[in-house]
Fold this protein.
Amino acid sequence: SSGINAEWPLRPGAEALNSYDDSCEFTQKSLKNSQLKLSKKSFLDDDKWKEESLPKLIVSKKVITLPQLERLMVWKLRRGQFRPTLMGLIRRNSPNNVEDVTNKAITLVLESTKNVTEAFKVLEGLHGVGPATASLILSVIQPSEVPFMSDEAMDASIGLPRSYTASRCKKFRVAMTAKAKELGDEWNVCLVEKALFTAAVLGRQELK
């Protein structure tokens, strides 16, 4: 047992994963005007793009472009808390710098999973990219190694306070890796994150 947070929804986690699409639809329906105005594309479209198209593009091109980074941020600001200043910060990055920095980070993590910590530091050199956004980028590149630091997964795995620091990020990754191992071979850290997000979203829906 991972021994972290005894209230972790172990069995519900497996069931919740099957309901991830439902939770995304609920998230789409729950968006506020400020979140809807971020993009003409729907949250469901962006989620599918992040899961299916973007990983293939990253593998072939070895970069993330500024428009792709903006789209990832839109996804993040809709799936979680809306922080209006973040999009402005992301747009302060030059296209060339985004490609240079992301190429360096991608090369590092594809070379060795031991380079994940260094890749975090590289990505955090971009405007608007802290540990949570860096974890999102790296989760697309290495879903078996790096979980997205969503509020829901952080709460379930390591509890409060919600502080997105390097040390909390490391603790989170350790907890999520242990839980994925505990759940079995078909699981990885990103699937665990999805299950915890889904359990939290569907739990909120039941309260409505």
